[in-house]
Amino acid sequence: MEQSTKFASRKRHLIAGNWKMNGLLEDAWQFIDALGDNPAPDHVEVALMPPFTLLHPMAEPLRQKDVRLGAQSVYFEKSGAFTGSVSAMMLRDIGCHYVILGHSERRDIIGESNNIVHSKLDAAWNAGLEPILCIGEHLEERKTGKTNAVLAEQLSVLEAASADASLTVAYEPVWAIGTGLTATPEQVTETHAFIHSELARMGHDCRVLYGGSVKPDNTAALMVCPGVEGALVGGASLQAESFNQIIQAAASVATGE
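RESULT FIELD:
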């Protein structure tokens, strides 16, 4: 179900699962066996980002279920003596459509700067991948009223990007990732409105997802917030049952059921 432009993909919400550094081959087979059919494929797109070791074995089984494959990161060089790195073309070659860039764990733990994220964006676009650009503030930054300034700085990597570039943005407040905390509907609505306004200022019209302790019991409340067009799911995507429940909740909102 390949889509030629970002505007075609934007007609559907995106539910993307980020497995992070989790999952062995047996886990992958069990997940695929338990993964049901998308209840509303015309309204909700589903994608999965397993670790590098599982991309190739999961590519074809996920394709058969109409689930888009994505990677969790990429290196910005095309090839060469970069031990331990994976290029964008390598990801494209094994069937990836998406790649997550700028995740707070890469920024905070690995030390990736905005310059590195910018280089990775260019590499992804040149290889035909769609980046999911993650942005988000720390708790102290929100408490001190710096949220919008932080997000604007992180979005600045898009200033020179073509308006036609395939792109998804994911707002993930760092204080809500893996903590069990979730931004309130008011916080989500206000922040997504700011993100959409910044994207529009730069000429971009793309989906903006919410991420941060997304679970089956809070998905619907998040998906009805104005400006939220899907979710980037962490721990709840590791089990097919909970991931399916999130997809079903998003589908119910998207179809008005």
